[in-house]
Write a structure and sequence with these properties.
The protein has 150 residues and is mainly alpha-helical. Helices cover 54% and strands 9% of the residues. Strands 1-3-2 form a three-stranded antiparallel beta sheet. The model is unreliable at 1-30 (pLDDT under 50).
Length: 150
Amino acid sequence: MDASPQGGTFLEPRHTHVSEGHVSEGHARGGHESCTPVREILAKIGDKWSILTIMMLSEGTQRFSALQRGIEGISQRMLTLTLRGLERDGLVTREVFPTIPPRVEYTLTPLGRSLQQPVIALGQWVMANLPEIDAARRRFDAVAEDPDAH
């Protein structure tokens, strides 16, 4: 799966529009260096598995198996990769307990908790607007199936 942004979006490397007062040195020179870290982080934390994992962990510390049960459709491998990425970025901590078998728990760090509000707000926005989005999709699909009906 390609995590690069769609052309023409504000995350595209060629993007140079920055609101007044928010011009970085890279943008002032006409460069795009400052877009790269933003694009990379948003691509990682903005994917559906990371968002769902953060939402699950917002309820508190969770074991791997509880996360896997709670995130519908995620494979063991994808959950492992997601948790490793979130841990690498400082959003999640992993604690291993010396039991047989080992017990592993995941918790949001303070940085991860600071992401809770926007992630939960995004999830709530989706739920509140799902009927309208579904209706728009049905209209679009109907036109796409019969272009003469448009």
